[in-house]
Please model this.
Amino acid sequence: MPERIPTTDDASHAAAGMPDPGLALAWDRMPADLELTVVVPTRNEAGNIDPLIDRLGAALAGWTAELLVVDDSDDDTPRRVLRRAESGTAQGLALRVLHRAPGARAGGLGTAVVLGLSEARGGWVVVMDGDLQHPPELVPELVRAGRRSGADLVVASRHVAGGDAAGLDGAARAAVSEAATRLAQAAFPRRLRGISDPMSGFFAVRPAALELDQLRPEGFKILLEILVRTPRLRTHEVGFVFAPRHAGDSKASAREGLRFARHVLRLLATRRREARRTVAARSARSA
Model:
């Protein structure tokens, strides 16, 4: 029997006439330890699910891997994942979906990713968007780069050799992305040393290197949260071309920009408290 995932709101699915997406469908045909989990947080991405599964399945041929969709949708997204799992057309890729009820979505994409990290079975996890702006074909290379370099976290960057942000839709969004990057780098110069794209939503990480209970994400930018709150991560970057969105609408907005700015201020306040505690501890030891 498929394994039961206890984080699903069964009542909300029954009310919607939707099969329970809290089942690890096809999990009984996979080994206990996977090489890789791909975590994709989604919100109303029904038009992108089939090409995402097709391209990931082709890219990960020969890997023991799963796609874990953490879903905050009000559309057909979770049903699309379940249909592909039930039809057995995912090219050997195990499929799971965790649908969060409206009252369980506090923190947005960031908390969806943390949930995915906590439920992942893979020794590596790749986090990516579901709109195909992050090329699925790069997923195995991120993990290989981590293995070769000995890194704990590999960032797919738009700002190193081989990278390009051409898929950003319009000059305004490109300017906001650049301003957010500069703000983050100015706020945390040490923690982000060697990271050219702290705004990237596309990265590979070893979950064993993280302390998930220390993460307090808010909004889109989970990578910045991980980098700031996990100081000893060994990092590496791989260039990628940010593609145009395949289908649906972008979730970026002025509201998300303000949310990000507030989150940076909260992280700064946390870092200052930590620094004061460190100074006080050193003073007490030397007294």
